Amino acid sequence: MKLDGSWVDNQVVVNSIRQLLDVEFNALGYEYITHELKKEYLINKKKVYRLMQEQNLLLGKVIRPTGKREFVKFRRIVATRPLEYLCWQGFLIKG
Asked: In this structure, is residue 70 part of a structural domain?
């Protein structure tokens, strides 16, 4: 449904989604697409998710690590004098 109360076909909404996704370096998820579509349509994120899933427009799942990061405690550097170790863009320089 549009904001003025008129009904639209699902394919019209899918075309709007495709226009939003037609950008370089696309990393837009269904929640952001829903936010953008709400400027024109009366729609919720569950419907947007379903439409994007049916058309294979969803991004892959993001796997976020859980739990404590135990390996960090073994990577600590102890300097014995000032400026002994400098870190620059991932490189460790021993002075």
From this structure: no
pLDDT > 90 fraction of the chain, expressed in percent and rounded: 42
The Cα 79–Cα 50 span in angstroms is 55
DSSP β-bridge partners for residue 22: none
Confidence of residue 89 (pLDDT cuts 50, 70, 90): low
> In this structure, is residue 35 part of a structural domain?
yes
Q: Which domain holds residue 17?
A: 10-54
Please write the tens of the pLDDT for every residue from 32-66: 999 999 999 999 999 999 999 999 988 877 777 77
Tokens of 8: 């639209």
Q: Is residue 78 part of a domain?
A: no
Looking at the 3D structure of the chain, how many domains does it have?
Answer: 1
Q: For residue 86, what are the β-bridge partners?
A: 93
Q: Which two tokens stand for residue 52?
A: 């994007």
